[in-house]
Amino acid sequence: MYESYEELPKLRLPLGQEVFLSDSTLRDGAQMPGVVIKVKDRLKIFEYLHRIGIEKLELFLFTKSDEEAARAMLDQNCLCPEVTGWARANPKDIDLVLAMDGIKETGILISISDVQIRTKLGLKTREEAEEKFLTALQYAVDHGLKTRAHLEDITRADLNGFVYPLVKKLIDIDPDCIMRICDTLGFGLPFEGIGNPYGIPEMVRNMLSIGVKNIETHTHDDFGMATANSLAGYWHGANWSNMTFLGMGERAGNSELEKALLFLVQRVEGFQKYDLSCLSEFAEFMEEHIGIRVPRNKAVVGRNVFAHESGIHTAGVIKNPFIYEPYPPELVGGRRKIMIGNTSGTEVVRFKVE
Ligand SMILES: [Zn+2]
Questions:
Q1: How many angstroms is it from 29 CA to the middle of ligand 1?
Q2: Section 127-139 average pLDDT
Q3: Lower CB density within 10 Å: C or N end of the chain?
Q4: Which residues pair with 94 in a beta bridge?
Q5: Residue 254 alpha carbon to ligand 1 centre in Å
Q6: Does 314 have pLDDT greater than 90?
Q7: Which positions ≥6 away from 294 have C-beta within 8 Å?
């Protein structure tokens, strides 16, 4: 039993819904301290996302170079990733999205924790905030845009007292609005049985029961749970997750696109639509051109992921890679490395010589 990759049982999404990925490498990822991405490199990242088959990406449209990059991506006329915009909850920002011919969808920032409303937005009451959010969404809908509501800081917000009633009003305006669960400070948890405001499974279930059709997670990694929270979203009925390549982003970054991809493609049924063979090359590109240092032991794309040095492991891998490799390197465009070090045995030396 279980002596080859093909024999390993695959998982199934319990609700069987169709699932998509959206990328924020060029939005949240580009907000990573110390990172500036040139227009030509943004296009290259777009190209990698296209090769993988990522369905959507989001962009800021605030500067000349933002516009230039968006225009160039739209002009490629690719089926994927769809280029979408991002706006704060005001008509002026939404006008910037509307001015970009070819963009059909925008995210709208809806900051819903009390600290965000009072201190960041400087509003006195939740009612004032609600009015602002609903007006912005209505404006986007009236101008023909598809919408996403980015419910910022939801894992520190009053879900029953404010968020869910607001969500009902949002879907009254746009029943197809994608409700984005933004775990902005990484407080979300992927486990069953965790109540408000932290539990992602319960939050997704509640949204479904309110009548939300499209649910997306956007999770930060401050407590190391981001990718687990993305997957928990899918597991309980979300149909989107928004992530960044290598987990780039503010502070500890975001849910890692490459980890979620590998998990879905290799371990869950029905995800052959994604092609992971350029992931290693994509990571090398980010190191070389964007200046991101990829840790050697980083899952999926780290230099050591298929490197073997100890005597026991190398002897095993030489006999049959299945013994110590969880999936074939080719899947992610990686290469196996058999190395000689102070823990190597005679087997590896013989192998190298031969
Ligand atoms: Zn974020």
A1: 8
A2: 98
A3: N
A4: none
A5: 7
A6: no
A7: 246, 283, 286, 287, 301, 302, 303
What is the pLDDT at residue 316? 85
Q: What tokens were used for 301?
A: 């794309």
Give residue 304's pLDDT: 95
CATH assignment of 5-290? 3.20.20.70
Q: What angle do CA 205, 206, 207 make, to 5 degrees?
A: 90
Residues around the ion ligand 1 (C-beta < 5 A): 28
Determine whether 138 is exposed, middle or buried from the number of CB atoms within 10 Å of its CB (0-12, 13-18, 19+): middle
Once rounded to an integer, what is the mean pLDDT over residues 38-43? 98
* pLDDT the model gives residue 318: 86
Residue type, position 42, single letter: R
For the chain, the structural domain boundaries read 5-290, 307-353
Distance in Å, CA 72 to ligand 1 centroid: 25
Q: What is the DSSP string of 194-236?
A: --TTTBHHHHHHHHHHHT-SEEEEEEB-TTS-HHHHHHHHHHH
Per-residue pLDDT, averaged over 140-169, amounts to: 98
| Nearest to 313, CA basis, from 280, 336, 331, 332 | 336
- Which two three-digit tokens encode residue 294? 């990829």
